[in-house]
Amino acid sequence: MAAELVRIDQGRAAPTIAAFVRCDELSKILETVVVGLERALPHHMVPTFFIPVDKIPLSAGGKTDRRILQEMAAALSPEEAAAFSRVTQEKQRIPETALERALADSWCGLLHLSADAISLDDNFFRVGGDRYGMTR
Predict the structure, then answer these.
(1) Cys-Cys link to 17, which of 10, 45, 47, 68 (CB 3.0-4.6 A)?
(2) 78 plus 109 within the same structural domain
(3) For 114-117, which contacts have Cβ atoms below 8 Å and span 24 or more sequence positions?
(4) pLDDT tens across 22-52, in order?
(5) Residue 102 shares a structural domain with residue 78
(6) Domain range spanning residue 24?
(7) Do 35 and 71 belong together in one domain?
(8) CATH at 13
(9) For the ranges 53-62, 72-81, 85-94, which has the lowest average pLDDT?
(10) Is residue 91 part of a domain?
(11) pLDDT band at 136 (very low <50, low <70, confident <90, very high)
């Protein structure tokens, strides 16, 4: 497994953490890994995306090739990104009140997300926000 700060959506969205996991490991460990990470790390450090790969790319020096991981994430279509996002795999409640809709619209504009991408249960950091975006 490798983790990398990446930009999904051709670099328009804020950088987010993605975990690249070998395909044969992903389904077996995903829930356990997420629960463990949420207990051990601050929310902004838990990966938003878990991207399956056949193997972790290595540089000539034998280290994880971070550039290739970043390119792989940047090449994802919005549909692929949604499929690999742990945020979209959870049941979502839609904003109902005017205040809830206004806040969701604000987040969508700031994070370059579609209007239906934010639910009542979302965490600003888990959907790609950062501390700098909170001040805008």
Answers:
(1) 47
(2) no
(3) 114/78, 117/88
(4) 776 666 677 788 888 889 988 778 888 888 8
(5) no
(6) 2-84
(7) yes
(8) 3.30.300.30
(9) 85-94
(10) no
(11) low
Each as own residue / partner, the long-range contacts of residues 120-124 (CB below 8 Å, 24 or more positions apart, any chain) are: 120/92, 120/93, 120/94, 120/95, 121/90, 121/92, 121/93, 122/87, 122/92, 123/43
Provide the 3-class DSSP secondary structure of residue 19.
strand
Distance separating alpha carbons of residues 17 and 20, to the nearest angstrom: 10
pLDDT (0 to 100) of residue 98: 92
pLDDT at 50: 86
In a domain, 89, yes or no: no
Q: Is residue 45 part of a domain?
A: yes
Q: Where are the beta strands (DSSP E) in the chain?
A: 2-6, 16-22, 49-53
Same domain, residue pair 109 and 66: no
As given in the structure block, the two tokens for residue 130 are: 């950062």
96 vs 10, residue with greater confidence:
96
Collapse the DSSP code of 20 into the 3-class scheme (helix H, G, I; strand E, B; otherwise coil) and give the result.
strand
